[in-house]
Amino acid sequence: MPVVSIEHLSKVYAPQFSWRQRLRGATPAPGLRALDDVSLAIEPGEFFGLLGPNGAGKTTLISVLAGLTRATSGRVSVCGYDVQTQYAQARRALGIVPQELVFDPFFTVRETLRFQSGYFGLRHNDDWIDEILASLGLADKADTNMRALSGGMKRRVLVAQALVHRPPVIVLDEPTAGVDVDLRRTLWEFIVKLNEQGHTVLLTTHYLEEAEALCERVAMLKGGRVVALDRTAALVERVGGADLEEAFVRIMRGENGWDDRRAPAGVEAEELA
Ligand SMILES: Nc1ncnc2c1ncn2[C@@H]1O[C@H](COP(=O)(O)OP(=O)(O)OP(=O)(O)O)[C@@H](O)[C@H]1O
């Protein structure tokens, strides 16, 4: 059974429609189709890459997976749990490292990780917290206040937060954007170790050399649609080119016809929330 199952997933964002426009009786513009009939399955223990240019729909897909955004249609499950109807179980199976640096400035690193453990009902988690801190090069920052950390250190804490409950599926949304070589190495060593221990990893990144080195399989999104889905090496060979980056460029340039990303006529804003 796949650990992540995505079946015919579509997401249309409602258009911005002001009260003034409403009162004037204006017709809402069609919504934006961020995901269009996406289907894919990720098997246990895979290191899977979700690739695509800016605005392709990667973060939207992760938001649906995390239960933060409601799908317009389709079904998504994690470890067999439906992300909408069995939200708590599905969320517990996921460790999500978000793209944006979100943190509480009032707590130390250790307090932040203890609180995160508490959200998952884990009260005596310090041994694992210490192991994560050491593995991410954060041991000497455990008692430092979050607001006193550099951007790269904050990102390490985000990774640590995602792992406190030992989730079977780890989702990393552009985790190395703007971080130094040291963090990249530390992060990948740790994530590869977790993957070897059986954790499934879903990674989105614009660093295609990282994706090529790490991901056994990749899916490429363009305009919300899956335009390629294959084992990384097989895809590079089939498309031609020296590496995944060249294959990516060829696939993105070669695909046409996905330009109309607007919702079909007749889709009302209210249906799209
Ligand atoms: N809350 C929202 N409301 C309306 N439109 C949105 C919302 N979130 C994302 N979008 C739009 O949906 C499309 C897909 O965005 P998304 O963030 O999923 O892309 P992405 O592949 O993660 O891009 P990036 O690589 O830049 O992070 C974009 O056109 C974006 O502007």
From TrEMBL:
<keyword id="KW-0547">Nucleotide-binding</keyword>
<dbReference type="InterPro" id="IPR017871">
    <property type="entry name" value="ABC_transporter-like_CS"/>
</dbReference>
<protein>
    <submittedName>
        <fullName>ABC transporter ATP-binding protein</fullName>
    </submittedName>
</protein>
<dbReference type="Pfam" id="PF00005">
    <property type="entry name" value="ABC_tran"/>
</dbReference>
<dbReference type="InterPro" id="IPR050763">
    <property type="entry name" value="ABC_transporter_ATP-binding"/>
</dbReference>
<dbReference type="InterPro" id="IPR003593">
    <property type="entry name" value="AAA+_ATPase"/>
</dbReference>
<dbReference type="GO" id="GO:0005524">
    <property type="term" value="F:ATP binding"/>
</dbReference>
<dbReference type="InterPro" id="IPR027417">
    <property type="entry name" value="P-loop_NTPase"/>
</dbReference>
<keyword id="KW-1003">Cell membrane</keyword>
<feature type="domain" description="ABC transporter">
    <location>
        <begin position="4"/>
        <end position="248"/>
    </location>
</feature>
<dbReference type="GO" id="GO:0016887">
    <property type="term" value="F:ATP hydrolysis activity"/>
</dbReference>
<keyword id="KW-0472">Membrane</keyword>
<dbReference type="InterPro" id="IPR003439">
    <property type="entry name" value="ABC_transporter-like_ATP-bd"/>
</dbReference>
<keyword id="KW-0813">Transport</keyword>
<keyword id="KW-0067">ATP-binding</keyword>
